[in-house]
Amino acid sequence: MPPISSSNPSAAGMTGLHLYHSGVSNCSMRVRITLEEKGLEWESHHFNILRKEHLTPEYFDINPKGLVPTLVHDGVVITESDDIIDYIDKNFSDPPLHPDDADQLALMYDWLRRATSMHVKAVKTHIYEKRIGSSMAQSAEEKANYENLQSDPELLEFHHKSTSGGFSQDELDQATATLETAFEDLEEALDGKDWIAGDIFSLADIAWMPLYFTLGELAGFSFEDFPNVCAWSERIASRSSFQKGVRDWWPF
């Protein structure tokens, strides 16, 4: 998604890098890791999304879906985590977080798109069902407020199901199967390699590590059958960007 125009005048007047984010959000983790890898200074606008602090008209004026993260850079608003980290990498080139080889670059973007494409149907469904769905239950007033703010059909359907026990067994099974297939493919991709795409730590690794972390920490997803993935995760966990971008914000 390209940068968007915000109807919130405070966003248009912001200078520097501002990040609206949450400690528990795997999408926010991607952006914080990227900012730390680049050594950039940024201003934090933190929400406790488990307390629904982001569900306000003011924030929906900045991000029309009301999701975190949102990056505002000198008044330019970017709202999807894959677009945000790509934007940061392209606008702040040192150090590069993409391979130079064209084929490896295409591979990086393939993995980046895959991480985001399964977010709602697999990652969020699995985590909400296993851990945080009960904490996101909505009162009648909260439900009416959310439906008044939210216009995205997929998110309306997801939150209706996640807060009312409405996921079918087939949907839950499909979410688990999607995750298992994805990490089977990642296990194969990492065979004999340190990183997902090319010889350098890239946006592909940044996109997938938060999935590994939150699925394991929040939802008890087992990675015991994926030794390459586990070794890869340990390499990333040793980086200061992971400590600062993930661990330092982790609320549990």
Name a few traits of the molecule.
12 helices, Glutathione S-transferase Yfyf (Class Pi), Chain A, domain 2, alpha+beta, globular, 2 domains, four-stranded mixed β-sheet, 252 residues, Glutaredoxin
Describe the structure in your own words.
This protein has twelve helices and four strands; from the N terminus they run αβαβαββααααααααα. With 252 residues, the protein is an alpha+beta fold. It has two domains: 9-91, Glutaredoxin, CATH 3.40.30; 102-239, Glutathione S-transferase Yfyf (Class Pi), Chain A, domain 2, CATH 1.20.1050.10. The protein has a four-stranded mixed sheet with strand order 2-1-3-4.
Question: Summary?
Answer:
The protein has helices spanning 9-12, 26-38, 57-62, 81-91, 102-117, 119-132, 140-149, 153-162, 169-189, 203-219, 227-237, 240-245, and strands spanning 17-21, 43-46, 70-73, 76-78.
Give me the secondary-structure topology.
Elements: H1 9-12, E1 17-21, H2 26-38, E2 43-46, H3 57-62, E3 70-73, E4 76-78, H4 81-91, H5 102-117, H6 119-132, H7 140-149, H8 153-162, H9 169-189, H10 203-219, H11 227-237, H12 240-245
Helix pairs in contact: 2-4, 2-10, 5-10, 6-8, 6-9, 6-10
Q: Figure out the total of helices.
A: 12
N-C termini distance? 32 Å
Examine the coordinates and then state which fold CATH places here, giving the name of the CATH topology of the largest domain.
Glutathione S-transferase Yfyf (Class Pi), Chain A, domain 2
- Number of separate strands: 4
| Beta-strand content estimate | 5-15%
CATH architecture annotation name of the largest domain: Up-down Bundle
Q: Could you spell the SSE succession in H and E letters?
A: HEHEHEEHHHHHHHHH
pLDDT averaged residue by residue = 92
